[in-house]
Amino acid sequence: MTLALSDIPQLETERLILRGPRLDDYPVMEAFYASDRARFVGGPGNTFQAWRGFAHVAGMWALKGVGSFIITRRGEDRALGMTGPWVPEGWPENEIGWAIWDASLEGTGIAYEAANAARKFAFGTLGWTTAVSYIDAGNERSAALAVRLGAALDPDAKAPAFDDVDIHVYRHPKPEAFA
Amino acid sequence: MTVAFQIPELVTERLRLRLPRASDLAAHTAFRTSERSKSVGGPFDAGESFGHLAGIIGQWQLRGFGRWMVADRDTDEPLGIVGILHPVEWPGPELAWTVYENAEGRGIAYEAAVAARRFAYQKLGIERLISLVEGSNTRSESLARRLGCSQDGTFSYQDNLDIPVWLHPTTEAD
Fold first, then answer.
1. Cis peptide before A44 (omega within 30 of 0)
2. What pTM was computed for the model?
3. Could you say which residues from 101 to 120 on chain B have a Cβ atom under 8 Å away from some Cβ of chain A?
4. Packed helices A140-148 and A110-123: angle between N→C axes, nearest 10 degrees
5. Nearest to B94 by CA among B109, B83, B107, B79
6. A80 close to A71: Cβ distance less than 8 angstroms
7. Torsion of the alpha carbons at A41, A42, A46 and A50, rounded to the nearest 10
């Protein structure tokens, strides 16, 4: 019996479908979170942390009306990562976030395609007038994606406060740039 | 744009068990950042409190069942969190309860827990329901006894704490 119902929107791109989180996505996220690849997003972490993190991702949609999408390839429906609006408590500004869980995606342009669709959703459907991405100073792949998306370092912008983590703020072009 | 999110509501004599929402965040954060949250691993900060409340809703999205915000039926004041908690590493679905300071000593947790337990048995078809109660949490242990639970082993996680497992009676299953 499905008791909880939500109408999280679905985004489509040339190769991808971005949809709401589901229980069967969790093992992919857990494997990612346990790996060294999670070191820029608060990991690596154990099952306790991964499950709570994933539930946080799923529940943000209800609390804030926005949240992250699960990235899947058309016709496969297997979770590859997540991207979307990320607006937790303590964030100075609205963020477009991304995390690629499946390492085999590196170099495919899938992350770019997904994040671009998420940004379009934030500027279009949500009506955001500006957006940033908060990226660990050591996360070169993520910084490269931000640059490819047209974002640039904004040294004056406030970053979320974390102990022992240096966060760079990349600001995306204004929505008008995509009009 | 808003995302419609619906879960079943339960209504008791004094309470409405409903979906947590953003307006509950202040009360939830007040609890999670206070000394009263020691028995659930706290105190935590405001960022964690948000993630925790979001996670409560997120479990509904992921599993189709979860925990409700227990609200005063007349005023809608948030009083605590009660329902079925089931993280992936748990030994099974747990009937879990937390009451905020303003709800203590009024039988709120008992009233909500009875309603949630009946729902778990009758609507969700859960057959074995447990509660995990830290040994030092005497108030919570008293409630487990009042609910007719009996202790059935322990569960270890995180820092290998041996948390007593309380097994619920199935008298409301029919």
1. yes
2. 0.93
3. none
4. 60
5. B83
6. yes
7. -60
Residue B142 has which token pair? 């008293």
Token pair 């879960």: residue: B7
Select from A4, A26, A65 the Cβ nearest to the Cβ of B64: A4
Q: Three-state DSSP class for B147?
A: coil
Instruction: Give residues with Cβ within 8 angstroms of A19, minimum separation 6.
Output: A8, A10, A11, A69, A70, A72
Tokens for A140, please give them: 């070169």
Find the closest chain B residue to A60 by CA distance: B54
Q: Residue A141 contacts by C-beta under 8 Å, 6 or more apart in sequence? A: A106
* Beta-carbon separation of B4 and A6 below 8 A: yes
Q: Give the model confidence (pLDDT) of B62-74 as tens digits.
A: 999 999 999 999 9
The CA–CA distances, whole Å, from B120 to A106, B7, B10, B71, B114 equal 43, 14, 12, 19, 10
Q: Which residues contact B36 (CB under 8 A, 6 or more apart)?
A: B42, B101
List chain A residues with CB under 8 Å of B49.
89
Question: Mean pLDDT of residues grouped by 10 in chain B (174 residues)?
Answer: 84 98 97 92 94 96 96 98 96 97 95 98 96 91 97 85 93 64
A147-169 pLDDT, tens digit per residue, is 999 999 999 999 998 888 999 99
Closest CA to A64 of A122, A110, A115: A122
The answer to whether the peptide bond before residue A155 is cis (omega within 30 degrees of 0) is: no
Nearest CA in chain A to B61: A4
Q: With CB atoms and an 8 Å threshold, state whether A63 touches B62.
A: no
Q: What percent of chain B has pLDDT over 70?
A: 97
As a whole number of angstroms, the distance between CA A162 and CA B4 comes to: 32
Complex prediction ipTM: 0.90
